[in-house]
Amino acid sequence: MNREPLEEPVTADIAEKIDQFVSAYREELERTRREAQEVEILVRQSTGEVEKLGQRELAVSSRVRDLEVNLDRYSKEEIKSFYAAAQEMQMRLQIMRGQLDQVQLRREALRIRQTQLADVVALLEEVRDSLKHGVTHAADNGLDTESMIASIIQSQESERLRISLQMHDGPAQAMSNLVLRAEICQRLLDHDLEQARAELNSLKTAINTTLQDTRKLIFDLRPMTLDDLGLIPTLRRYTQQFGEKSGLEVNLLVQGLEQRLPSLYEVTIFRFLQEALNNVARHANANQVRVLLDGSGSALQILVEDDGSGFHVSETLNNLNARRHMGIASMRQQIEVLLRGEFGIESAIGRGTRVAATVPLP
Fold it and tell me: Residue 302: in which H helix or E strand, if any?
């Protein structure tokens, strides 16, 4: 669909709005960087404290073992004092390790946020520069520039809402439960040491479970391997975990992608495939799903195909609520707007669904 060129005053006004967005996001990016630096210092300090406490705990444990072998050499008060010191040291070490885990998780979350903000700033700057040169990528894709900017902001806000809900329903609830159990342990220490020990062991298991769940949440939000190892290793791990969690047989086939892609491409393609696979798990009633990435030509071909129940494509695309529910608008924006590619869906009742995209390689 061809559009008339934007008039100069309108283009300048839009470019000015984008400048304001860029400035705001740059300020937030700088705040995030400063906080990340402060958290990094806390991580180093906490790591040092944990190492020191670990060494002291080993020394105390050694003294306790010596006590158990030579009980006749110690008075009851000395035995009681040794055991109390050992318990206190173990508790302090567990608390410090828990604090270190929390600080490390915060550091990872800040790294994710930094990357997201940097990607948004880079995209907005590209749109702004295009406007200043009289070219709008949105027009090339049949979209209004202001609508595209609004979609970018809305997508980010939707993602923030999704993250906050996940944090509230997952780690936040678990942490509240851990606090209550810690208070129970504290009360038991004055009345029933054996029960307190049992409750502490149970609490340790619960903390470890919460930590693993939080790490899985962080991986779903922004895998660290995406920055460190790249798209393909991250997808291999993600599809394996996704298959185990959803009960689907996920087959990933990759061809002609020996080299890393730019960060924007890898992040966007990962998010696209993540949304497509989530749709299969939520809506398709499928047993198998095939994911293909073929970069052997001049463009990257992406395919997600399932053997599920299928749906009426035209009805879904005409239904705004259904389209949003399945994330189709988001997937289309990721491919057509962010990567300037082509996006399409094929499906029929009882014949599964095929989501395809073609992305020009940089």
Answer: strand 299-306
